[in-house]
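Sequence in, structure out. Go.
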Amino acid sequence: MRKYVLKRVLVSVVILFFVAFIIYALMRCLPTSYIESIARQKSMQPNSKSFEEWMAQLKVMYNLDKGIIVGFFAWIGQALTGQFGDSWFYTVPVLQKFNDTVWLSFVMGFIAFFLEIVIAIPLGIIAATKQYSRADYTISIVALAGISLPTFFFASLLKLLFSVKLGWFDLYGLISRDYDTMSVFGQLMDKGNHLVLPIVTLVVISMGSLMRYTRTNMLEVLNADFVRTARAKGLSEKSVIYHHAFRNTLIPLVTVIGGSLPGLFAGALITETLFGIPGIGFVSYHAMIAGDIPFSMFYLVFMSILTLLGNLISDILYAVVDPRVRIA
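Output:
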């Protein structure tokens, strides 16, 4: 098991190295005129650095006066020490802006992830155990709707119904206008109220695929020989389903769920942008469209690390729950 994990970690490090190189090379391929134009725009902002200071920082950070290979290794050395420069759009250090926004995305993503598991897996089991029943058809329709609905469309429907028509939630933002006059508990409840619709959007859009995945795997296990043997021994249907069948369904489910864990820190770019929630997805979107090269570079590398970490967790968890992988 130790050799398997070490091998997967080394492979992930190699892949990350080449992905980072591609991201750096793409940045170096940007036209010089574009970089100078963005730096000039940022220098005109209030309390911002001068054009020469922005360009000097960019040259030092990304070694624009050197070749791509030499510049890449120099950039890697700086990145490993946590030096990613200052954000052009937000005019603060990249890591500071990241730390100020990522935890809001994490809280929102964690709540949505928890609700997705609590809702999707039991519904998937019910659909499998009552195949071709009215409950199965209803759950399948809900799952397919969640998979098919675009995020921006479903979010717009929620905003139209609950914000415009009913007025239960604010249309945009994380806090209300009178936020500063509220008590600490009131401020907490106010933020929670603004996060309801974004979390509902994330849950509905994400749980459909997990419901279908659970149903498909559960049906496959229920038709296995060992389940028929358990029933032939006279075990109760509840024991057969939850003690024998569901435990074997967990093998692929654990890998899917494990691969989703790093995504808790990635933010939901579309959802956060539509609802104006200043998480890491919202911040990175505005940084990219504004030509914020330092922040965009950091975010792309960060997303690459999360993707590789998700695959690594899935592989390790699969080896943990399935002895055949460890033996192989």
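Check: The chain has a mean pLDDT of 83. The domain at 97-291 is CATH 1.10.3720.10 (MetI-like fold).
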